[in-house]
């Protein structure tokens, strides 16, 4: 969830990555969206994309994604 959506206007492109069903009244406007309701967390989806595109992560970034998977 995004607490303050005002700053989004400063970006040219926005992508929503989520594992919850999209609801019109609770979703930001985005150029792209990647919704996977079967995933356990958005961190899982991001981890899958990082792996698919063979992106190397720092240890801190990998730990943050693991924490996101664990906590969600």
Distance between the termini: 13 Å
Q: Assess the beta-strand content as a share of residues.
A: 5-15%
What is the helical fraction, as a range of percent?
25-40%
Sheet/helix structural class: alpha+beta
Major β-sheet, in short? Answer: 2 strands, parallel
Radius of gyration: 13 Å
Could you state the order of secondary-structure elements as H and E? EEHH
Mean pLDDT level: 87
- The DSSP helix count reads 2
Total beta strand runs: 2
Strand order of the largest sheet: 1-2
Low-pLDDT windows of residues: none
* Shape category: globular
Characterise the protein shown here.
The chain has about 70 residues and is α+β, with helices and mostly antiparallel strands. It has two helices and two strands, in the order ββαα. The chain has helices at about 40-50, 60-70, and strands at about 15-20, 30-35. Helix 1 (about 40-50) runs antiparallel to helix 2. The radius of gyration is 13 Å and the shape is globular.
In summary, what is this structure?
This protein is α+β, with helices and mostly antiparallel strands and 72 residues long. The protein is built from two helices and two strands; from the N terminus they run E-E-H-H.
């Amino acid at each position: 969830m995004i607490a303050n959506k005002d700053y989004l206007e400063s970006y040219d492109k926005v992508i929503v990555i989520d594992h919850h069903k999209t609801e019109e009244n609770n979703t930001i406007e985005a150029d792209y969206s990647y919704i996977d309701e079967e995933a356990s967390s958005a961190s899982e989806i991001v981890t899958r994309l990082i792996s698919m595109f063979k992106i190397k992560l720092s240890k801190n970034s990998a730990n943050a994604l693991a924490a996101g998977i664990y906590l969600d």
